[in-house]
Amino acid sequence: MEKYICTVCEYVYDPAVGDPDNGIAPGTSFEDLPDTWTCPECGVGKDMFEPA
Q1: If both were cysteines, with which of 2, 10, 11, 26 could 41 make a disulfide (CB 3.0 to 4.6 Å apart)?
Q2: How many Cβ atoms are within 10 Å of 50's Cβ, its own excluded?
Q3: Residue 49 carries which DSSP code?
Q4: What pLDDT score was predicted for residue 31?
Q5: Half-sphere exposure (CA, 13 Å, Cβ side) for 34?
Q6: Which residues contact 16 (CB under 8 A, 6 or more apart)?
Q7: Would you state the pLDDT for residue 8?
Q8: pLDDT tens track of the chain, all 52 residues?
């Protein structure tokens, strides 16, 4: 699974890790994140991420 990087703050979403602090289990691909998910560092939406 591909990692994605926030174009605002450079947070990297790693599917192998997920985002457990926000209820996203390890193994969740970026495409499977809910549309309401936001960057845990700066709060922007999924549309501000690009493949890392």
Answers
A1: 11
A2: 9
A3: E
A4: 97
A5: 8
A6: 1, 26, 27
A7: 98
A8: 899 999 999 999 999 999 999 999 999 999 999 999 999 999 999 999 999 9
| Cα(26)–Cα(36) distance, integer angstroms | 18
> 27-31: which pairs have CB atoms within 8 A and are 24 or more residues apart?
27/1, 29/1, 29/2, 30/1, 30/2, 30/4
Evaluate whether 4 touches 52 at the Cβ level (below 8 Å): yes
19 within 8 A of 30, measured Cβ to Cβ:
no
Residue for token digits 């990297």? Answer: 12
Distance from C-alpha of 30 to C-alpha of 46, rounded to nearest angstrom: 9
Q: Tokens in use for 45?
A: 């939406």
